[in-house]
Amino acid sequence: MPKVLSAVACNLDANILAACLPLMEESRIEAIEWSFDALYKVKEVPAWFRELLTTFSNEKRLIGHGVFFSLFSGKWLPEQENWLKHLEQTAAEFQFDHITEHFGFMTGKDFHRGAPLNIPYTTATLNIGRDRLKRIYEACKRPVGLENLAFSYSLDEVKRHGAFLEQLLEPVNGFIILDLHNLYCQLQNFNISFDEMIALYPLDRVREIHISGGSWDDSAAAPDRSIRRDTHDDTVPPEVFQLLEMTIARCPHLKYVVLEQLGNGLVTEESKRCFYDDFLQMEEIVRKNSDENDADSSDPFLPLSSLLTGTAVEDMTLYQQQLELSAILESSASYTEAMHALRQSSLANSDWRIEQWEPYMIETAVKIAQKWKK
After folding, report:
1. Measured between alpha carbons, how far is 1 from 260 in angstroms, rounded to an integer?
2. Which domain of life is it from (predicted)?
3. Residue 285: inside a domain, yes or no?
4. What is the Cα gyration radius of the chain?
5. Can you list the alpha helix ranges (DSSP code H) found in 192-268?
6. Which of 139, 190, 203, 368 has its CA 20 to 30 A from that of 307?
7. Residue 162 and residue 234: Cα distance in Å, rounded?
8. Are the C-beta atoms of 205 and 176 separated by less than 8 Å?
9. Does residue 251 lie in a domain region?
């Protein structure tokens, strides 16, 4: 059995499945990552898709990736309770090798309309995040991980992210999905070097790596620069493959490398062929570097003791600030309007450190929030 498995993010989407089919026919896909909570609009999962999931599940090569839990919501929401019940039921049906979620909180009142955006790194958010990770573990009884964020408001946040992830994960003995395109976004948007950035992450906690593509966005706030966005709708850039080459051997507990692309980026035959080529390039890098990985057969990411605490941790001040921030981002006609509103808001002179936020990243946050709202 290979030490590091080459995988795809495969969901119930005709374009994604069509792109994956040639790879499956050639028995190249060694594991599947499934966004188990993205089927909220589907009343009945087709039997053939369930069978596909079961096949990988039986081989312990199915991993679950959450999108909508909103880990850092200051208030414990009924939707989060329902999400956990759904996870518990799904984990009883399929043998997930692990379960992961996105870092951040979701903007938007509708639970399924929001962009995962950053939070202040404080004791309050740390306690909320730890509480939610314990609840995810209790629902699935599998190793639990978090994906690094593609979006930050300031260089200070970028530099503190890895250490905060480690603090969050420590009580559940959790792991990191190191999304290299997310890392690429941060490198480009804040002019920081890979060596400086990667040194800030606890790479012994990396169990999974994501690679994907994205897009460039012009900025009115900073006309001399383009903002890298994690839109998952294009091929993997050469720079991200280079990051993969540079990162694999540094992660002693790496088990999966996953190629992600959304179905809206896989409409044409050309795009599907590029997806196939991206997988082959990823597979070759994984094969070439896999022997340097010293992962053993035991699972290094299972909690060491019973975890569950009492009632869910909440912080209503944080929750009100999140609602206020979401409203500003979703309603502002421009980044200058958003910046003015932020300066008048309860986030001013607070742990959010909005005074350090880059105008071009506030502008990007407005675009993200308004895109998700639609």
Report:
1. 23
2. Bacteria
3. yes
4. 20
5. 194-198, 238-247
6. 203
7. 26
8. yes
9. yes
Q: Are 318 and 74 in contact (CB under 8 A)?
A: yes
**Short-list 207, 68, 66, 76, CA closest to 131:** 76
Going from the C-alpha of 351 to that of each of 75, 124, 236, 347, 362, the distances in angstroms are 18, 10, 36, 8, 17
Q: What is the pTM of this model?
A: 0.95
Record the tokens describing residue 366, joined without a space: 């407005």
DSSP state letters, 154-213: SHHHHHHHHHHHHHHHGGGT-EEEEEHHHHHHHHHHHT--HHHHHTTS-GGGEEEEEE--
Distance CA 144, CA 173 (A): 8
Cβ(358)–Cβ(161) under 8 Å? no
Which amino acid belongs to residue 286?
V
Give 303's pLDDT tier (boundaries 50, 70, 90).
confident
Whichever domain contains 124, its CATH number is 3.20.20.150
Expressed as residue numbers, the domain containing 228 is 5-314
Q: Which amino acid is at 92?
A: A
Q: Are 286 and 248 in contact (CB under 8 A)?
A: yes
Both tokens of residue 95? 């043998």
- Any idea which residue has 């480690």 for tokens? 166
Handedness of CA 232, 238, 241, 243 (dihedral sign): negative
pLDDT tens digits along 131-140:
999 999 999 9
**Please, what is the angle between helix 123-140 and helix 155-169, to 10°?**
50
Structure tokens at 78: 């009924």
pLDDT for position 363:
95
Cα(10)–Cα(5) distance, integer angstroms: 15
Q: What is the pLDDT of residues 179-227, one digit of tens each?
A: 999 999 999 999 999 999 999 999 999 999 999 999 999 999 999 999 9
Tell me if 93 is assigned to some domain: yes
Looking at residue 228, the DSSP 8-state letter turns out to be E
